[in-house]
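Follow-up to my post from last week.
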Amino acid sequence: MAEKEVKLMKGNEVIAHAAIRYGCDGYFGYPITPQSEVMETLMEMKPWETTGMVVLQAESEISSINMLYGGAATGKRVMTSSSSPGISLMAEGISYLAGAELPCLIINCQRGGPGLGTIQPSQGDYFQATKGGGHGDYHLIVLAPNSVQEMHDHVAEAFDLAFKYRNPAMILADGAIGQMMEKVVLAPQRPRKTDEETRAAARAWAVYGKPADRERNIVTSLELQSEKMEIINRRLQAKYRELEENEVRYEAIACDDAEYVIVAFGSSARICSATVEMARAEGLKVGLLRPITLYPFPKRQIAELAARGVKGFLSAELNAGQMVEDVRLAVNGKAPVAHYGRQGGMLFNPDEVLEALKRQLINK
Amino acid sequence: MAEVEIKAENRVYAKPRLILDNTMHYCPGCSHGTVHKLVAEVIDELGLAERTIGISPVGCSVFAYNYIDIDWIEAAHGRALAVATAAKRLNPDRMVFTYQGDGDLSAIGTAESIHAAARGENVVAIYINNAIYGMTGGQMAPTTLLGMKTATTPYGRDPRLNGYPYKIAEMLAHLDGATYITRQSVHKPANVRKCKAAIKKAFQHAMDGEGFSLVEVVSTCNSGWKLSPVAANEWLEQHMLPYYPLGDIKDEKLDPTR
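User reply:
Got it. Predicted complex:
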């Protein structure tokens, strides 16, 4: 067996390595802190000379996301990365990608808002990522990594899910995961698909020049007849139900006998795993439910914990309370649900979360 | 009615092979139909039918994909040249062109247009300039002439209120990556023939990797202008052409050393 390739890397750098190794066809992006290392790393690695991957610095995030639309429409594996204000600029294009059912990967290395906000980490874009973000009824597939290793692994996973469901996928990271350095095991290099392989796989829908033996393909999100547009919407909704049924990913830490459960994702979940250890050391039966897919959300798993008799849930997030709404919907009144958060680029400490848990739930 | 067989030597005109039978939604007298026909003919004559990716805009020609029998992408408003950039870079053996109006290419999509041209993308933009927003009901476009009445300049375009029109073709000609820039019209048969030659040259230019091309077609919007088709053609000649003069603005090859 070949020896594992282990490196010490930043979360943002590893995105570039993972994309090349996955056989990604194109990256289109625009610089913004705290994720600029993604494109810098790609430009330094020059994958166009090895795998043939295209890397292009666009004039704006609006342009990058529309480049994704053009690349994805031809059946290629394309991606972009940005941070919160840049993702807001992409919202229209993301809606078009969802409407035209184009697979692609978007990485949001979140920073604090609103507006220009701060360049420090935040989870303030949970609503934007999981509820659509642009206009119309749609969802992205949203993965939330809590380590540099997961930043790496989620690139392949998000692309696979995006192509399986023909839907844009997002990795919702934050400035902390993007900037921190950690050990990572790199995947082996996969050969990038040839044009022929790509076109054969996406023959039913992709646009690459109409061969004589098939009808022309049209990539569009437009349908002026309401009766037909409703049918398209129903098809999209059926796809989202299928995602909710089959693709929920989560991690449960010490939840089996837990009386109180912290729900947290990404960098907050990392902090809260230490909170669980501290609580357990004090004899408090506290567990951590970490959604790995934010959409589809592990609502059934949370509902089961509530039905099992968990006495309270604390949604710990680096925002003013966004995921807590989904936790409340899942718990559906069976137990108290509280939120603890920091904003503006501030992180919380594990003991701060434990104190909040005691104050808001255990000792209430 | 029985099919009448016409001998090849007697045939002076035929519907282009790539034009589909779908009923066109364009108003009678509109230039779009003629330009569609020219694009379809050029694609077929260059043998590119199986290798062409068309990109339609938002505006009257949003449904261009209903009329020419090739693969199409329908882009968001103004973003066609960003879409084209990736489609071409990821499929360099393909012919990629956009078909955009003046609102799409030179108002909301100005940044995408300028940067695709500046990068020297090997794509063609067919730019229909009829000085008005047709689809939304005749509002002012960036290309609306001074004094021209539209739904949003009901008393005529006043530069103090509405700013001046501008010529994006001349602006793009300053860019090293933009190598073939031309302005044509289709209001007379001779102009139709010249326009077709220009489109063909642009497509060849893109396939040869010679950089970005823009074919502006000064067009009529008789519904928006509230003129009959014939009067619109006359108005175009009297008012549009003095401000938007016809002919090649730039005809060069890409020079990577510059």
